[in-house]
Design brief:
The structure holds 2 protein chains of 2 kinds.
Chain A: E1 5-16, E2 28-39, E3 43-47, H1 54-61, E4 69-74, E5 77-78, H2 84-91, E6 94-97, H3 101-104, H4 111-121, H5 127-140, H6 157-169, E7 175-179, H7 187-204, E8 207-212, H8 215-221, E9 224-229, E10 232-238, H9 239-244, H10 249-257, H11 299-303, E11 309-312, E12 315-317
Parallel strand pairs in A: 3-8, 3-9, 6-7, 7-8
Antiparallel strand pairs in A: 1-2, 1-4, 4-5, 9-10, 10-12, 11-12
Helix pairs in contact in A: 4-5, 4-6, 5-6, 6-7
Chain B: E1 2-13, E2 20-31, E3 35-39, H1 46-53, E4 63-64, E5 69-72, E6 75-76, H2 82-88, E7 93-96, H3 100-103, H4 110-121, H5 126-139, H6 145-148, H7 158-170, E8 176-180, H8 188-205, E9 208-213, H9 216-222, E10 225-230, E11 233-239, H10 240-245, H11 250-258, H12 297-301, E12 307-308, E13 314-315
Parallel strand pairs in B: 3-9, 3-10, 7-8, 8-9
Antiparallel strand pairs in B: 1-2, 1-4, 1-5, 5-6, 10-11, 11-13, 12-13
Helix pairs in contact in B: 4-5, 5-7, 7-8
Classes of the chains: A alpha/beta, B alpha/beta.
Chain lengths: 335, 328
């Protein structure tokens, strides 16, 4: 179901200027040499906790923030080499949906105008044609077109997220970066939006980069999963393989930490100790080593950065001892 | 033994469109040492229920109905004078919130904030209170407590701040801990640590806990009993295992089927059509009937009271009286 590489990130680095007063501290590396490929038609889930760099990576992919080093190719086009007008043309093909639709919608613009705006900016439609297309988009995302003249504050969170999706779809993109699209929503609304995203993907043959902290949501929606921690990729592989047999101890910890909505599930968990270190002072060697529960952990882990390597067919991990990572002790893995 | 007994709690807020009955006839008991999970989506009334118990809404426009009672240790908390109420808050019933940074004083060390709480309720010297603060920080798993008593909130991570809040809450050995979304703002690995901590402390100290959350995964692992709220009411109450195995109320059932599962692959999620109605215009009859797949005319006309459904389970649903109406 997935085809040729559509989005290819190679050795991507993003540094932000240092912290502190006058920003004279050392630069903070939010994304550290990440290489990742999203194939046409697939949904790649990018997971990680706060400070993992997943959001920054997503924005670098669309060049909404300028990466410090590395390359981004979209359908063979070198995204970072494009001038402004070429980039704008390319943006028609790659769009983003944000977590908080309230923050990304202009409060003084009706939601109909918000969905129409990209059509006009990209000169795809105007006048009645544009209005008709907006009505069709409303319909497609499950909104009554009659609410087009309302303002964002008059809508519910779920409706606003549908507007965010309709706006992204208005320019007929092939690729959507979805940055925590359902995490602000209540469970019942979240289910509606997740089903909508699945339908749209099928109907429009979309490719998704789905950024989320909720592993259950990612398991539900993604074909492949990439796990980030402190700016680095820890593991990537097919959703089935990664949930059945995670290879990186951090992935194991993440899976174990998620509360299971089943009171009969075993309770004893391998919870990583301590807090994640600050991105300002990443530990040497493997960034996860201070919290790692792997029984083979040794001095190599604190000195040598593990290579991101193919440990099992199609499953990559950055751990010196990935071959012997113990399986999650409690998580029942269904087929 | 019943420790806390809430009966017919009605908490309303005046609005332009008339009173919003955010909590509307809520009754439940909390037994010694028990963990009750209170779950529901935004606006269901779970937080207002908790705030009403400690009368933390008194300086707002909220109004608690005269017929409501909240009995604790033979006294009605709603009719307690201010001084007695102050003695109950913190010392008998303590509460922790979602955002620990909003509850901590930025210019006081965490040690002195704990000591302050102790000295507000107990006769203790400053030195003894500080020693106890250090002990409490150790109890909640703060690394290097002897040094951390002198730390300020901004020097601590979100997880550590929540541990400090728990230490403050436990400082007077309360009988009841009300935890309102205690891990919602935290990353999943930190959430797991805090949940383990709460479960361990509760067993060790024998407190009762009211765990308020939107995450049914959290209650599944921690609660003995679960109360599901919708539209300002408890729509179902049952032992945790029973509730998850055989949900009685259609809303509970729908909620359980709407969550993606970490423990197994899911294809299509069940959804609940429509959205939660606003508190100013709850639907007639059963609050859930406009979204319920089984609803019939009785559901729109008559509000179901909490009906016993066998095995200590209670649900506000007419299907208990007319089970043949359940659409398959």
């Amino acid at each position: 179901m997935s085809g040729e590489p559509l989005l290819v990130l190679d050795n991507l680095v993003k540094e932000f200027r240092g912290g502190g007063l006058f920003r004279r501290g050392p630069p903070v590396r939010a994304v550290d040499r990440v290489s990742l490929t999203v194939r046409r038609g697939e949904a790649l889930g990018l997971v990680g906790e706060s400070g993992s760099g997943k959001t920054t990576l997503g924005r670098c992919a669309l060049r909404l923030v300028e990466p410090t080093a590395g390359t981004v190719h979209f359908d063979g086009v070198p995204v970072l080499a494009l001038d402004r007008s070429a980039l704008r043309t390319l943006r028609r093909r790659m769009q983003i949906v944000f977590q908080d639709p309230y923050g990304s919608l202009n409060p003084r613009m009706t939601v109909g105008a918000a969905v129409r705006e990209p059509l006009e900016v990209h000169r795809l439609a105007k006048g009645t044609t544009a209005i008709e297309r907006v009505a069709r988009l409303f319909d497609e995302v499950g909104l009554d077109p009659s609410i087009a003249d309302r303002y964002p504050h008059e809508l519910s969170g779920g409706q606003r997220q549908r507007i965010g999706i309709a706006r992204a779809l208005s320019v007929e993109p092939e690729f959507l970066a979805l940055d925590e699209p359902v995490s602000a929503l209540d469970v019942s609304v979240q289910a509606q939006v997740l089903n909508l995203l699945a339908d749209l993907r099928e109907r429009r043959r979309l490719t998704y980069l789905f950024i989320a902290h909720d592993l259950a949501v990612v398991r539900h929606l993604a074909d492949r999963v990439a796990v980030m921690y402190l700016g680095r990729l820890m593991e990537a592989g097919s959703t089935t393989a990664l949930f059945a047999k995670p290879l990186h101890p951090y992935t194991v910890s993440l899976l174990e930490a998620v509360p299971v909505p089943d009171p009969t599930a075993p309770r004893r968990r391998v919870v990583p100790v301590g807090d994640p270190p600050s991105v300002r002072r990443p530990p040497p060697g493997c960034v996860f080593h201070p919290r790692c529960p792997h029984p083979s952990k040794d001095s190599r882990c604190s000195t040598e950065v593990p290579k991101f390597r193919e440990v099992a067919p199609g499953q990559w991990a950055a751990c010196h001892y990935a071959e012997t990572t113990p399986a999650p002790p409690t998580l029942p893995h269904g087929r | 033994m019943t420790l806390l007994s809430v009966r017919h709690l009605v908490t309303s807020f005046p609005t332009d469109r008339g009173p919003a009955r955010a909590v509307d006839d809520v009754s439940f008991d909390l037994a010694t040492g028990e963990t009750l999970g209170l779950v529901g989506e935004s606006g269901c009334g779970k937080t207002v229920t908790a705030l009403s118990i400690l009368r933390l809404l008194e300086d707002t426009t909220a109004h608690i109905d005269e017929r409501s009672t909240i009995e604790y240790a033979g006294r009605d908390l709603l009719r307690l004078d201010r001084e007695s109420l102050r003695r109950v808050r913190g010392a008998e019933i303590a509460m922790i919130f979602q955002d620990p940074s909003a509850s901590l004083n930025p210019v006081l060390t965490v040690g002195s904030q704990i000591a302050e709480t102790i000295r507000a309720h107990r006769d203790a010297s400053r030195r003894d209170a500080m020693a106890r603060a250090e002990e409490l920080l150790r109890l909640v798993g703060l690394p290097d407590p002897a040094r951390q008593v002198g730390a300020y909130a901004h020097e601590l991570s979100g997880g550590m701040r929540q541990r400090v809040m728990i230490a403050i809450a436990l400082s007077c050995e309360p009988k009841i801990l009300i935890a309102d979304e205690p891990t919602t703002a935290l990353d999943v690995t930190i959430q797991a640590q805090i949940l383990e901590l709460l479960a361990g402390l509760q067993q060790r100290l024998g407190m009762a806990m009211m765990l308020i959350t939107h995450d049914i995964g959290v209650v599944a692992g921690l609660a003995d009993r679960v109360a599901v709220m919708y539209g300002g009411q408890i729509v179902e109450q049952a032992a945790t295992a029973d509730l998850f195995r055989h949900p009685t109320h259609p809303y509970t059932e729908a909620l359980l089927r709407a969550v993606p599962r970490i423990d197994r692959p899911t294809t299509r999620l069940a959804t609940i059509p429509g959205m939660v109605p606003p508190a100013t215009s709850w639907p007639s009859g059963c609050r859930f009937h406009p979204r319920c797949p089984h609803a019939w005319d009785r559901c729109a006309a008559e509000m179901p009271p909490p009906l016993p459904a066998g095995g200590g389970r209670v649900a506000r649903c007419w299907l208990i009286e007319e089970p043949e109406r359940r659409a398959s």
